[in-house]
Every structure is written in C-alpha cells, then in structure tokens.
C-alpha cells in the first residue's frame, strides 16, 4: 500500500525542515533537554526559545503548546509532551496518540498547512518504536479524515531503524 498523498517519511534534520511547524518532543517543563528537544533549542536560539517556553508554564503529558520558530525555517515550534514508557499499562498509547492529535490541532489552529514530527517518546522515554508507529499512524489518519486536515505531514527521523519501522507500519 502506498503512503497517503499528504505524508512523507524521511531521514533528515528536523530543525531544517521547510514546513510551517516542527514538533518538539518536549518535557513537561518545556525546559529544553537532550535529543530532539536540545537540537531544536540550539537551532532556534536557546535563550529566546527558553523565555517563550517559560511563559507557557509547562505542558502536561499528551498535550501540545506552540511558540514562534525563532531561528528555525519553520514559523512555529509545537512542543508536544509524550509519555514515558511504563510497560504499557499506564495509558501510554492513548497519551502518545493525544500528543500527536493535539499537535495537529494546534497546527490547524495556527493555520499551518504543513508539519514535521520526530518520533515522540521513542528516545529516552523508552516507548517501543513498533507500537509507537502504529499509534502514530492511527492518530494521523483519524485527524486527516476530519475537516481540519493539513496539506503536508512529515515524519522525520535521524535513526534508520525508526524510519524503517515507521515505513513498515504505514505500508501494512
């Protein structure tokens, strides 16, 4: 099965994507950190972004909030907080789906036509990539079936294994 016409899955630097919004795999304090979060803070301009994040007052797991893109090509950064993996019995899948859905809703509210996502929760938070890929696919398909669908969605990875797992999930 081919990918939907609104989706691309690629190996690239998320901070350099020419989209309206990039999604940051953020922590609940929106304080910056390692991985994707650290890369976005460095590329956008850490001082300005940290000030904007502090003004938002944090973000609960499963939700998303936006700041300007500052030094990124993207106009917006949508900070989405995914769950820490706890074995799958603490609602992690629904929290991850919510983080993606809320990011898409925030993007739509901001009149974005395009968005780029990292693999939220699949790094230090330990979410199993195969399960994450299935959750993400369902969340995106459900959103795109609605009236506020975006024109273009990118799933952006730096790790070839995550890219392959995600491609496989979309081909099933």
Explain briefly what this protein structure is.
The protein contains 5 helices and 6 strands.
Question: What characteristics describe this protein?
Answer:
172 residues; Leucine Aminopeptidase, subunit E, domain 1; 6-stranded mixed sheet
Order of strands across the widest beta sheet?
Answer: 1-6-5-2-4-3
Q: Can you summarize the main beta sheet?
A: 6 strands, mixed
CATH architecture: 3-Layer(aba) Sandwich
State the end-to-end distance: 7 Å
Q: Which class best fits the helix and strand makeup?
A: alpha/beta
Number of domains: 1
Number of strands: 6
Parts with pLDDT < 50 across at least 5 consecutive residues: none
Mean pLDDT comes to 97
Helix content: 25-40%
CATH topology label = Leucine Aminopeptidase, subunit E, domain 1
Radius of gyration: 15 Å
Count of DSSP helices? Answer: 5
Task: List the SSEs and their pairings.
Elements: E1 7-11, E2 21-26, H1 35-44, H2 46-56, E3 64-68, E4 76-81, H3 92-109, E5 114-117, H4 129-144, E6 152-157, H5 160-171
Parallel strand pairs: 1-6, 2-4, 2-5, 5-6
Antiparallel strand pairs: 3-4
Tell me what the structure shows.
The structure is a single chain. This protein is of the alpha/beta class and 172 residues long. It has a single domain, classed as Leucine Aminopeptidase, subunit E, domain 1 (3-Layer(aba) Sandwich), CATH 3.40.220. Helices cover 39% and strands 19% of the residues. It has helices at residues 35-44, 46-56, 92-109, 129-144, 160-171, and strands at 7-11, 21-26, 64-68, 76-81, 114-117, 152-157. It has a six-stranded mixed sheet, sandwiched between helices. A hairpin with a 7-residue loop joins strand 3 and strand 4. It is globular and about 45 Å long. The relative contact order is 0.21.
């Amino acid at each position: 099965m081919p990918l939907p016409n609104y989706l691309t899955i690629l190996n690239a630097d998320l901070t350099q994507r020419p989209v309206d919004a990039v999604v940051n795999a953020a922590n609940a304090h929106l304080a910056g950190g390692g991985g994707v979060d650290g890369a976005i803070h460095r590329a956008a301009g850490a001082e300005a972004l940290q000030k904007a994040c502090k003004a938002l007052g944090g973000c609960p797991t499963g939700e998303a909030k936006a700041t300007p893109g500052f030094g990124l090509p993207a106009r917006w950064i949508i900070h989405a907080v995914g769950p820490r993996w706890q074995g799958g019995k603490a609602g992690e899948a629904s929290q991850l789906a919510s983080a993606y859905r809320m990011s898409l809703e925030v993007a739509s509210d901001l009149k974005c036509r395009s968005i780029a996502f990292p693999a939220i929760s699949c790094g230090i938070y330990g979410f199993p990539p195969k399960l994450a890929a299935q959750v993400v696919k369902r969340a995106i398909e459900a959103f795109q079936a609605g009236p506020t669908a975006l024109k273009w969605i990118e799933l952006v990875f730096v790790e070839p294994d995550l890219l392959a797992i995600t491609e496989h999930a979309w081909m099933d």
